[in-house]
Structure formats: structure tokens, C-alpha cells
Amino acid sequence: MKLKKLGMLTPSSNTVLEPVTCSMLHDVPGVAAHFARFKVTEVALTSSAAGQFSQKPMLEAAYSLADAKVDVIAYNGTSGGWLGFENDRRLCELITRETGIPATTSVLALNELLAIHGVKTLGVVSPCEESVVLRIADNYRTIGVDCSYYACSGITVNYDCANVEEETIKEMVRSVAKPGVDAITTFGTNLWGAHLAKELEEELGILMLDTISTVVWKCLHIADISPQLITGWGKLFDTKQL
């Protein structure tokens, strides 16, 4: 059996997405994840923070993954949530045009899952500042998704997002689990939220959509591997594409 290789564009200060991705894929036969970093240290609405996500450094990281002949290249990050979904779409188009490899992002995969599950009200749990979350909510409003229920930690240094404690994340999720909320996203790939999905779904009865999980789900589909091979990480892995 030919090994399937999933390439992940990784923000340089992220210490969560690599171990989580590898843990998810541990029991999936014939699949491996490979990572390339580009510099990201700040999460904010400043011009300097936005500049970290310019196409040039991300494309250079994508070229290095292409050298490994990966089957898909994914931006495992959520800046498209506040910079705009079109940024992610343009990035994917550029990567595919330059490398010939299909591309996706955490946010585009999340948006696909929202459409599949008919999510109209999305609870958002984020490590970022409130201003960032409000910008995320503005962007989701344009696709008919209400993000009025949110919880955030006020962090601007990306490295620090990984230090949000598990119990804090659980309480943030519980705080947005309001009547009428169709799903909750732990929105940030440097946040230890993915492994909590199954437990919180059982407790709250609400679909959990972690943004590391969403991009792994989509990458497996692109690589023609069933996401249902991943168990114990939440219901989203049972979701079939449209």
C-alpha cells in the first residue's frame, strides 16, 4: 500500500498542532503527517500581525512540503477567520497552481462542515482577544452563521495560546453551550481542544468542531482515506463530504 502523506503548513510558534495531528493519525494505516513552518508570533488585528500571513512565506513553506511529494497541503491555522475566507481560498489556489498539489485550510474545512451539518448558530471558543473574535463573527455573518455566543482568553502572543489549561477550555465551551447553538468550535490550532471533543459532546449534546480536527478531516478526504478510521476524537470524523 502506498503511503499517503499529509502536508501541514504550521505557524512557527505553534506547539500543539503537530502532536495532536500525529496522535489523531496514529491508528490510521498508511498515513503520515509532515510539517513545514513559517514565522508567526502575534495574533491581533494589527498590520504587523496580518503581514505574518502574507502569501510569500506560506508558499515557500508549501514548496518544501511539495519536495516531499505530499498528497495534500493544508494550512493548519485559523487566520482566515479574521482576515477573511477569501484569503484562504486565494492561498489554496496559489499553492495548487504552483505545486500541482490540492490544498485546504482549517477554516475552509470548518466552513464545509458547517454547511454539511446545517449549522446556523456557532459557539466560538478562542484564545484570542475579543476584537479578533468579533471580526471572526463578522465574517461568519456573511455566510449566514451567527457567532453571538463566544468565549475568549485575550491572548495576543501565539505561543501562549498553548498554555490555556484544559479545565479553562472546558469551562469556556460550557459557557457558550446555549440553547439553539448547533455546534461549538475550539477556534485556534495552538489550543489543546481537539482531544476534549468526545467528552464534551457526550456532556453537552452539541457537535464539537476543533480546527485541527477539521483540517485533518478534510485532508483525509482529499487523500481518499476514510476519516471514520479516526475514533475517539469527536463526531466530525463520521461526517461525509457533500
Q: How does this structure look, described?
A:
- The protein is α/β, with parallel strands linked by helices and 242 residues long.
- It has 2 domains: 119 residues, Rossmann fold (3-Layer(aba) Sandwich), CATH 3.40.50; 101 residues, 3-Layer(aba) Sandwich (Rossmann fold).
- 41% of the residues lie in helices and 17% in strands.
- It is built from 10 helices and 8 strands.
- The strands form 2 sheets. Strands 2-1-3-4 form a 4-stranded parallel sheet, sandwiched between helices.
- Helix 3 packs across helix 5 and helix 6 packs across helix 10.
- It is globular.
- The model has no long low-confidence stretch (mean pLDDT 97).
Main features:
single chain; 242 residues; alpha/beta; Rossmann fold; 2 domains; 4-stranded parallel beta sheet; 10 helices; 8 strands; 41% helix
Q: How much strand content do the residues show? A: 15-25%
The averaged pLDDT comes out at: 97
Secondary-structure arrangement, i.e. CATH architecture of the largest domain: 3-Layer(aba) Sandwich
Uncertain spans, ≥5 residues at pLDDT below 50? none
In short:
With 242 residues, the chain is of the alpha/beta class. Helix content is 41%, strand content 17%.
Write the layout of secondary structure elements.
Elements: E1 4-11, H1 17-25, E2 31-38, H2 47-51, H3 55-67, E3 72-75, H4 80-83, H5 85-99, E4 103-105, H6 106-116, E5 122-128, H7 130-141, E6 150-155, H8 166-176, E7 183-186, H9 197-204, E8 207-208, H10 211-222
Parallel strand pairs: 1-2, 1-3, 3-4, 5-6, 5-7, 7-8
